[in-house]
Specification:
single chain, alpha+beta, D-amino Acid Aminotransferase, Chain A, domain 1, Recoverin, domain 1, eight-stranded antiparallel β-sheet, 20 helices, globular, Tubulin polyglutamylase TTLL11, ATP-binding, ligase, TTL/TTLL_fam
């Protein structure tokens, strides 16, 4: 054993001197070759271990670490790591040699390590980090993609953040990175970063194949006024009482006639009723293009020669007032992941106040935007706007200061906060199904790509009876921590805004802390699904000792039991994605729709395949007319959901819609599960029928680890199975 430690120490000294030479030549310290620790650790036996020179290689392993302190613990699969060219580490007299060339370092290809002095070959997947290779048992591609990000942050180097696309959130982001003692790259970086911070959308940089991006694909499109209204409307059909926090809405121009008819009927039934409506452009932001009306004839439907896409909603005429002013809440919500669904809510938010005392809408004051619209970008131009360094005064205040003031008046703040949390979770459940379709389109399973997270801005209004109402959800909430101020006549400059800085820097900083690739969250198993534990229960690293506690609170999956029954449309989306057929596609063609009907056995004598084709054509044609800018032909998710509701109503006529949908989902999922069981039994019987030499071919031949031989082997197996199949049938008959 002493000889073993002597050999290790000699090799360590050689590797250290090699690393020092590299530093002198100007090699970036973050991309240095990792140096093995002088201590050898004994690891527990691993089922995937390989016998080396007649001994069990799993009994002893050399733990390799980066220089400095590690950001994360080494996982089970982190075994022997190698130097830049070759590093031979002695294992009880046997030497493992791992030559690593530049052309070898491609993620996702199986590697083989030849063991000197033996005829053994250590097989497994290889991952590259800098110029060394980590060997571990083969995993599926999605696990590899996720763990690849976690393995980047090792001891000795900070987390790297690409901020070249950050735009208006740049100053808050820089302060957050400085507090965390991470490393920023203002101009980008040729090597991969751990986190990429985009200012607008996921596609700000399309060349990212690893790490984490702060935008989800499709989030901008999903949170447009029309798409959000459609998503919530679908949930209102299934759960009308649960989704009563969103005002009644009509989509223009397609529902203009319906809107006019309904309002006319309301006024005819009761002449004293004279409701007010607010019109919001589909792609508008910062209050641009918003106006109030009291009669459908006041709608501005055309912009030039084109119809204007917009949403018209019931106006909340009796909002809660403070200092006789209308206000709304800007709440920051972190969507940490889609699968599993993880949602965090910031404990602190902003309240934006109007700058004119509120009066109920009338024909005279409909155009008073400073009275009716709470948008900061509008009210900041009012002469009454007050910039204040205090959190409890001025035209922009912290949410906690407003809640404290309400509590002093006897308001049940816990009930208000609980209702707000429920609103956020229900809204997220409504938009997640479509986001999953966008996600699989941009990052199909099996394709290298980053993981995503995103900070959203929820705009919420409290009514006079303290009921929260959702106004809209912003995919790109402003993270600016300064405001424009006139320092001289006609001269403006940006000055710091303490209220914005206190809230927004904390949100960004703690979002980064939650996404730290060195902190892999523990999880618990629930009903066969891995449920991540709340981040606040985890141990904090020494580097975070000086930081305040997290300002983000996990609300899902923490409250899974209360809200999981609402995720029906997400189950429909899973069926939709399964039968899309082509990876990277968002539309279902007629053949895929017929396959869905056949596989789930939804056709019968009363509903033939010809009827299925007619249903597909009718629904697809109607939805294509509502989305003229759509670049793809076929049935989208929302159209598929409508078809699914129709099929459920046709098959279970005696039930209400929600029970119809649940029953049809259970039927489809049961059919798919039974078919997958049949396929598994077929594959098992096929493998038993094969000669032993064929079954062990992929295990004994390392050349089959490349994609082309795998395809050839699978085709050979299929042909062999076809030849063996008739004999097997005859044998069964004879028996």
């Amino acid at each position: 054993m002493s000889d073993h430690y002597v050999k290790v120490n000699i090799q360590l000294e050689e590797m250290k001197s090699f690393g020092e030479d590299a530093e002198k030549e100007g090699v970036d310290a973050e991309e240095q070759v990792p140096v093995c620790s002088p201590s050898a650790s004994v690891s527990p036996p691993d089922p995937s271990s390989t016998t080396i020179a007649g001994r069990d290689a799993s009994n002893t392993s050399i733990t390799c670490k980066h220089r400095g302190k590690s950001r994360s613990k080494l996982g089970k699969d982190d075994k022997n790591s190698c130097g830049k060219h070759t590093s031979d580490v002695s294992l009880h007299g046997s030497v493992v040699s791992a030559p690593v060339g530049r052309n070898l370092n491609r993620l996702g290809h199986d590697r083989t390590l030849h063991i000197k002095g033996t005829g053994k070959i250590l097989q497994g997947k290889s991952e590259t980090n800098g110029n060394y290779v980590t060997v571990h048992p083969s995993k599926n591609i999605q696990e590899t993609r996720r763990e690849d990000g976690f393995k980047h942050a090792k001891k000795g180097r900070p987390v790297t953040v690409d901020i070249s696309k950050a735009k208006t959130s740049l100053e808050a982001l820089k302060l957050s990175i400085k507090q965390l003692k991470w490393k920023e790259f203002p101009l980008g970086r040729r090597a991969a970063c751990d986190i990429y911070w985009h200012g607008v959308s996921f596609h700000d940089n399309d060349n990212i194949v690893s790490g984490q991006v702060n935008k989800f694909p499709g989030m901008i499109e999903m949170l447009r006024k029309i798409n959000l209204s459609r998503a919530v409307r679908t949930m209102q059909e299934l759960f009308p009482e649960e989704y009563d926090f969103y005002p009644r809405s009509w989509i223009l121009p397609e529902e203009c006639q319906q809107f006019s008819t309904q309002i006319r009927m309301v006024k005819e039934n009761d002449a004293t009723v004279n409701p007010t409506f607010i019109v919001k452009p589909d792609g508008g932001s910062q209050g641009d293009g918003i106006y109030l009306i009291r009669d459908p004839s006041d709608l501005k439907l055309m912009v030039g020669t084109q119809a204007k896409q917009a949403v018209v909603q019931e106006y909340i005429q009796r909002p809660l007032l403070i200092d006789k002013l209308k206000f709304d809440i800007r709440l920051y919500v972190l969507l940490k992941s889609l699968e599993p669904l993880e949602i965090y809510i910031a404990k602190e938010g902003l309240t934006r106040f109007c700058t004119e005392p509120y009066q109920e809408p009338s024909q005279k004051n409909l155009s008073h935007v400073f009275m009716h619209l709470t948008n900061y970008s509008l009210n900041v131009h009012s002469g009454n706007f007050v910039h204040s360094d205090s959190q409890s005064t001025g035209s922009k205040r912290t949410l906690s200061s407003v809640l404290y003031r309400l509590a002093a008046k006897g308001v049940d703040i816990k009930k208000v906060w609980s209702d707000i949390i429920a609103l956020v979770i229900k809204t997220a459940i409504a938009v997640v199904p479509e986001l999953r379709v966008y996600y699989q389109c941009d990052i199909p399973p099996g394709k290298p790509g980053p993981t995503c997270f995103q900070i959203l801005g929820f705009d919420i209004l409290l009514t006079k009876n303290l009921k929260p109402v959702l106004l809209e959800v912003n995919s790109n909430p402003s993270m600016r921590i300064e405001h424009e101020q006139e320092v001289a006549p006609g001269v403006f400059e940006y000055v710091p805004s303490p209220v914005d800085e206190d809230v927004k820097v904390g949100v960004i900083r703690d979002t980064l802390r939650l996404m730290d690739p060195g902190h892999k969250k523990p999880s618990i198993s629930q009903h066969g699904e891995e449920i991540p534990m709340e981040a606040e229960t985890q141990e904090r690293s020494p580097d975070e000792g000086a930081l305040p506690s997290l300002c983000l609170k996990q609300v899902y999956p923490k409250y899974t039991k209360q809200f999981n029954y609402l995720r029906l449309v997400e189950r429909i989306a899973s069926l939709f994605i399964r039968f899309l057929g082509v990876k990277g596609n968002m539309r279902m063609g007629p053949t895929a729709f017929r396959t869905f009907i056949r596989t789930c056995k939804l056709s019968n004598s009363n509903f033939s395949m010809a009827s299925v084709d007619i249903l597909y054509i009718d629904i697809t044609r109607r939805w294509s007319g509502t989305m003229p800018d759509s670049r793809e032909a076929g049935m989208g998710l929302q159209a598929f959901v409508e078809a699914f509701f129709y099929l459920a109503g046709r098959r279970f006529k005696s039930l209400v819609l929600r029970e119809q949908v649940v029953s049809l989902l259970q039927l489809c999922e049961a059919q798919l599960e039974s078919q997958s069981g049949v396929e598994e039994r077929r594959s098992v019987s096929c493998s038993r029928a094969m000669p032993r030499a064929v079954r062990t071919l992929g295990l004994t031949n390392p050349q089959l680890n490349s994609p082309a031989p795998l395809r050839r082997a699978s085709s050979q197996d299929y042909r062999l199975h076809q030849r063996l199949k008739p004999r097997t049938l005859r044998a069964n008959v004879e028996n």
